[in-house]
Design brief:
This protein is mainly α. It is built from 9 helices and 2 strands. Strands 1-2 form a two-stranded antiparallel sheet. Helix 2 runs antiparallel to helix 5, helix 4 runs antiparallel to helix 5 and helix 7 runs antiparallel to helix 8. The longest helix is centred in the last third of the chain and has 32 residues. 20% of the residues are buried.
Length: 246
């Protein structure tokens, strides 16, 4: 399993209703995107970071999950700092610094809010409940099967890489390139084979377009919802100037 899935299944918020965590995380996400960057995005992202610590999500897990999106944020922000006043000449644009700071601040805050929901809510509890919101079963079934295939793909990559490493496939640069090419082909074949086996297994079990999945019964906590509403209200009031942040 992925580290985020392990944290979601073993964390103390595992027993909370997904709607509670969706209200909290998505509410903070809306505040981070819709409210002014200062202090709206800062307060939303800071609250999400604190709540990740309250939910006992390891910092290592959060950093590993955020490293690729953060790299994308950095590479997307750097061009906002540059300008080209003359042909083939790059210069630092002082006017782009505020725009870059606002863009990076909103992106990091939104990413933290999404990690709050992902690291505390298993996907297996979210997809079956989407039917009540009017989402077609075909959409949720495709999402569930794609999610399952990700684990099979990662498992195939790990198995092929371990077999190549045991045969000294990465000893030199030339052998590493050859091993990577063979790894891509082997993983593709193994993924198709596992997908075919999964399809055959579903057909044997009488798959007709939807899978009946039993989910745990969780009650919505009124104090949790009230605390979430109060937190979002405070962030909105402080960000819009109704209440002074100092």
């Amino acid at each position: 399993m992925f580290a985020l899935d392990i944290a979601a299944h073993t964390g103390p918020w595992r027993g909370r209703h997904p709607a509670e965590k969706a209200l909290l995380a998505l509410g903070l996400l809306v505040c981070a995107v819709a409210l002014p960057t200062w202090p709206g995005a800062l307060l939303s992202g800071g609250a999400a970071a604190v709540l990740l610590a309250v939910a006992r999500v390891p910092l290592v897990v959060v950093l590993r999950a955020a490293r690729v999106p953060l790299l994308f944020v950095v590479t997307s922000t750097i061009p906002l700092l540059a300008s080209m006043p003359a042909p083939l000449r790059l210069a630092i644009d002082p006017a782009g610094l505020p725009v870059a700071a606002q863009t990076a601040g909103r992106s990091v805050a939104a990413l933290t809010c999404l990690l709050l929901f992902t690291a505390t809510t298993p996907l297996s509890e979210v997809l079956p409940r989407l039917h009540r919101l009017g989402i077609p079963p075909a959409v949720t079934e495709v999402a569930a099967l794609t999610y399952r295939m990700l684990f099979l793909l990662v498992e195939s990559v790990r198995a092929v890489r371990q077999a190549q490493a045991a045969r000294l496939g990465f000893r030199t640069w030339r052998s590493a390139y050859r091993s990577l090419a063979g790894q891509a082909g082997a993983v593709f074949v193994r993924a198709l084979h596992r997908a075919r086996r999964l399809e055959e297994g579903l057909a044997v079990r009488g798959y007709t377009g939807s899978l009946a999945v039993q989910v745990g019964a969780h009650r919505v906590s009124v104090p949790f919802v009230a605390a979430t509403t109060a937190l979002l209200g405070v962030i909105v009031m402080v960000s819009t100037g109704w209440v002074s942040p100092w």
